[in-house]
Amino acid sequence: MEMAVKPAWLEGLMAETFFGVCGIHENRRKNEKNVFCLLCCLSICPHCLSSHRSHPLLQVRRYVYHDVVRLGDLEKLIECSYIQPYTINGAKVIFLNQRPQSRSCKGSDNICFTCDRILQEPFHFCSLSCKVDHLVDQGEDLSTILHRIDESGFAFSQFEGLRMDGPELIEDHDQITPNSILEDPLQYKGSSCSNETIGNSEISLRDTEVVRKKKKGSGFLGGIVLSLTNKRKGAPQRAPLS
């Protein structure tokens, strides 16, 4: 059964915890661990990048509070056929691990071979771990779907937009940075079964650090104006008829 053993980087990628605070840089801003070092097999934050400059690095993002990787990046490492992708800002992503479900979808026509989550045709898996675990359970040879890591495709240069020359991380807004959350506007609508039928819907991207602005018209003066405009005028008083 040794053929089905997962390589260290794959085991680490699926088991690692991302978007937690980096213990080394806990006093720095934007210190979420959202990059995976394929050589060290651990998650690091943007402040750690310089220490892994010569290592292959994989960017991890968030989608509905779950970890995803761009399909284009993941396909350089492992064959991703039959894993359902999601299109986000024009880029397809893959979930790293299966997600909890509120109800069983076993009555559906097309479900994940591993966790029974409903899928679009012709996909068989909802995440990378579901496909890998299924192949391992079947005793399949994982080497047939694994690719040799080309370090040039995961070079440090892809993160050069994250300049570390100041006390805080300065982002280059012309590119998507590692510190990003991919939101699903449908996350509060319907059950997990019905939501999965919208597998390739377009999802918006926002940065983790949101600048909160006060709404116009708010505050003390705005409240006075609002209360005055809402006050109803009394009915006109007429003199009694003589």
Please tally the β strands and state the result.
9
Oligomer: single chain
- What is the helical fraction, as a range of percent? 10-25%
Strand order of the largest sheet: 6-7-5-4-8-9
Q: How confident overall, as mean pLDDT?
A: 75
Beta content: 5-15%
Task: Give a quick summary of the entry.
With about 240 residues, this protein is of the alpha+beta class. The protein has helices at about 10-15, 70-75, 130-135, 190-195, 220-230; strands spanning about 35, 40-45, 55-60, 60-65, 65-70, 85-90, 90-95, 180, 205.
Tell me about this structure:
- The protein is α+β, with helices and mostly antiparallel strands.
- Helix content is 15%, strand content 13%.
- The chain contains five helices and nine strands.
- Strands 6-7-5-4-8-9 form a six-stranded mixed beta sheet.
- The model is unreliable at 163-231 (pLDDT under 50).
